[in-house]
Design brief:
alpha+beta, 10 helices, 9 strands, two-stranded antiparallel ribbon
Length: about 300
């Protein structure tokens, strides 16, 4: 107990020193939340504003639209579904969606969507009046020519992960957020993480996307509505929840060891794996990184 208390104290003491260090390192250009964590303790520090208004400060429990970091959550849900026998990663999409079996899009597998090797063009879904997101995705990938033959190379693709979210809902009969709460948030003890299906309303303690200038931070006029890409970018979370998610994943509490290793296997010649990026660091080790940036 004394060792744990000393560890917690040292983590909190380090967090108290972090804010002036960040200011010294970045001036006033940093706006966000940083978590210092070990296996047994963590502490957070928040710097900056919630929405560009200096009087509305970020808090350590402020929720952020985590954009492409969402892909790691979707990848875990897909791999969990394979462990339960609900998805076969080698099955073609034509088995689940109204796509011609012999068409390039119909032949794409779930694993190719996960590994970004589907060859599908990346596009912003634009459903017609009365058309669901699922039908829009299927129609568009069926109509658009592929950028390359499935499985022959890798190319970043938000559409693939959006379609994986639709696949999860189709095969399980549950919403993406219900799956998230049951299979990730519960086991990993995440308290403020969810998929969103509409832009977050004011008063929900969700940070606004900001741009920096010489005069400070202001709301980004070009911020993307990530609710249109739920499986690819629709998660809202906190920094401490993301730390807990990473610890649960690396501790094999969300996936079997073999599934986690598959998730974290980069494509040949690339740092991109399934829902994450594997980055080498100077000491020769490789670290798990969910994305280069979020918003």
């Amino acid at each position: 107990l004394l060792t744990l208390l000393a560890l917690v104290w040292s983590i909190e003491a380090a967090a108290n020193e972090l804010q002036p260090f960040l200011k010294q390192l970045t001036g006033d250009s940093f706006n966000g939340v940083v978590v210092l964590a070990t296996d047994n303790a963590n502490a957070s520090v928040a710097v900056g504003t919630l929405d560009g208004n200096a009087s509305n400060k970020l808090a350590t429990q402020t929720r952020f639209r985590i954009a492409s970091v969402s892909k790691a959550f979707t990848a875990v849900l897909v791999l969990q579904a394979t462990e339960r026998g609900e998805i076969n990663l080698d099955d073609p999409l034509a088995l689940h969606f109204s796509l011609p079996v012999l068409s390039p899009a119909g032949a794409v597998t779930s694993d190719q969507l996960l590994w970004l090797t589907s060859g599908s063009k990346d596009f912003g879904p634009s459903p017609k009046q009365g058309e669901s997101l699922r039908d829009c995705l299927v129609r568009t990938i069926s109509d658009e020519p592929m950028d390359f033959a499935p499985g022959t190379r890798q190319q970043y693709c938000n559409v693939g992960y959006t379609l994986l979210g639709e696949l999860l809902e189709k095969v399980t009969g549950q919403s993406l957020d219900a799956l998230l709460q049951q299979h990730i948030c519960g086991p990993a003890n995440l308290n403020a993480t969810s998929y969103v299906t509409k832009p977050a309303a004011t008063g929900e303690n969700v940070a606004t996307g900001l741009v920096s200038s010489a005069t400070g931070f202001s709301p980004d006029p070009d911020v993307v509505d990530l609710a249109k890409f739920p499986g690819a970018g629709g998660v809202v979370s906190t920094a401490s929840d993301l730390s807990a998610f990473a610890n649960a994943l690396m501790g094999n509490r969300l996936l079997r060891s073999s599934s986690r290793k598959r998730m974290m296997s980069p494509y040949e010649g690339s740092a991109l794996a399934r829902g994450c990026r594997m980055m080498p660091i100077p000491n020769g080790e490789t670290i798990f990184q969910t994305a280069r940036q979020s918003c």
